[in-house]
Specification:
Blueprint (H helix, E strand, L loop, with lengths): L4 H21 L3 H8 L3 H8 L7 H11 L17 H5 L1
Amino acid sequence: MPKTAASEVATKVVGSSIRTARLEVGITQAELAGRMGVNASYVTNVEAGRVNLTVGQLANIADALGTGLDVRLPLLDSEPVSVASARA
């Protein structure tokens, strides 16, 4: 499935939420990767919004963080998010 502007924004928002949750827990990308059984570059790509995650992958990340993920998808919000602001 080709990436659309909306899916690009959503992956950026989700990646940013994961980064925020990781920082709140106080661990590095390498530590999160170790907990997940993946390499650190995968976590880097997730946080940068370059990975279109499945629900199962999101659950794995939340479990590795020991917390839930509060992700507000712009597609479901009443106010749209611009692609330009998500790329910043």
